Amino acid sequence: MEFSISAQPPQFEAIAAAGFKYVDPHFGSGLSKYNTEEEFQALGETLKRTGLTIWGSAGLFPKTLHLVGPDANLEEAIDFIHVGMKRAEAYGTKVVVFGSGDARRIPVDFDPREAYAQLVALGKAIAPIAQEHGVKIAVENLNCNETNTFTSLASTLKYVQDVGHPAFQLLIDIFHFQRSDRDLLGLANAGPHLIHAHIATYDNRRVPGVEECDFSANLHELKRIGYEGAITIEANSDWTVECLHKALETLRDAWETA
Questions:
Q1: Which residues of 220-232 are buried (b: 16+ CB within 10 A; e: fewer)?
Q2: d(Cα 179, Cα 80) in Å, to the nearest integer?
Q3: CB contact set of 188 (below 8 Å; sequence gap of 6+)
Q4: Burial of 164 per CB tally in 10 Å (0-12, 13-18, 19+)
Q5: Cβ distance 196 to 95 under 8 Å?
Q6: Rg of the chain (C-alpha set)
Q7: Model-level pTM?
Q8: Going residue by residue through the chain (258 aa), what tens digit of pLDDT does each one get?
């Protein structure tokens, strides 16, 4: 099992020193269409200097790019993906994470069925673009405090299945899963589509090792169904080498004993 951590470039030095090989930078830290060429190149220079490799990248769509509702802009979203997937490919990114809770939030008084149709059309349009660049899009389950779409693993899985493209798959965010459905049978059913995972402590969304947290049930189920993607820590941290090293070792131990 490979382990990564979601972070911004200023934290890469400490992450590398803590023993990580992989990092999941925010999409807007250099890969986005809205980043300058200088920002894109700077991300690459930081990766080269630290020896880190990008596994995934979260925060795909910014909240200013509306994906549903009367202001949905499919044409801009497609152009955004064309640029972003080309940049993601350049740095060997395997997975980009479609969380983007604000961008996919259904406006009040807008028909949820029409919103869902918009999201399916979006998925069908952008998945082939990602595939052309050797990248997969992983849709993230969020909790209801962050969005009003795909707030359970089951609803996220249905969306992935309705889009129906091999480059458009599923991420399980264990923090959100613990806050919402906790449906281990649903996790087993999602297994064939799972390509990425996020994790954080359940109480305060901290990196592993900072506070007591029993990850065993969820990690055991991932192991049981043969999950082979990476597990990325997406959590709050003080970003010291000591804290990050403890987080990595705690997660490794939790996986080994699950």
A1: ebbeebebebbbb
A2: 31
A3: 221, 224, 225
A4: exposed
A5: yes
A6: 17
A7: 0.96
A8: 999 999 999 999 999 999 999 999 999 999 999 999 999 999 999 999 999 999 999 999 999 999 999 999 999 999 999 999 999 999 999 999 999 999 999 999 999 999 999 999 999 999 999 999 999 999 999 999 999 999 999 999 999 999 999 999 999 999 999 988 888 888 999 999 999 999 999 999 999 999 999 999 999 999 999 999 999 999 999 999 999 999 999 999 999 999
- The three-state secondary structure class of 9 is helix
Q: What is the pLDDT of residue 164?
A: 98
CA–CA gap between residue 113 and residue 133 (Å, rounded): 31
What is d(CA 30, CA 39) in angstroms, rounded to the nearest whole number?
Answer: 5
Q: What 8-state DSSP symbol labels residue 101?
A: T
Q: What tokens appear for 187 in the block?
A: 């996790």
Torsion of CA 171, 97, 62, 53, to 10 degrees: 150
Domains and CATH numbers, the chain: 3-257 (3.20.20.150)
Conformation bin of residue 187: beta by default, left when phi > 0, alpha when psi is -120 to 50: alpha
> In terms of Cα–Cα distance, which of 201, 189, 118, 124 is closest to 157?
189
Q: What angle do CA 139, 60, 229 make, to 5 degrees?
A: 45
